[in-house]
Amino acid sequence: MRFTAPIAAIILGATAFPSNAIARDETGPANIPAPVQTTVEHAPVVDGAEPFVVDAAPSLAKRGTLIVEVWQGFFRGERHESLSTQTQTCYNLGNGWSDVISSLSVPNGFGCDFYENGNCGKNGGKQLNVGGGGYVDRLDKYAMNDAITSYRCYN
């Protein structure tokens, strides 16, 4: 009984200090499937094609699995994550990755659309299309640096 009050005071005191760290769970997923999935039409994948921005969400057909590589810094710098991805699935970025990506790559044989808003642009916003084998070293070239919140890939 005598030790209960000091222990409670220590616990309460430790939780009273604010944390300035980015809230992220190192064990949580970096990509989270969006609650609503939609199917849209999309152009065929052209490996090595130049990334481009479009206004409308694309459609997808076949399923596949791929790894999308993302970095927090330009030229594959700083923090890195390999996002295990199913095609035709919209992913919202989690675990501290939303609005911090500065460079990325998409493997050959697949293409991905990266969206400024969650749920793969369901509420509008910019969209960046990156074709198969595409590596974008600086997303600021497309006005998408630190702006990607969700993505969807296709094959």
TrEMBL record:
Sorted alphabetically, which keywords does the UniProt record give?
Answer: Signal
**Signal peptide range:** 1-23
This protein is called Beta/gamma crystallin 'Greek key' domain-containing protein
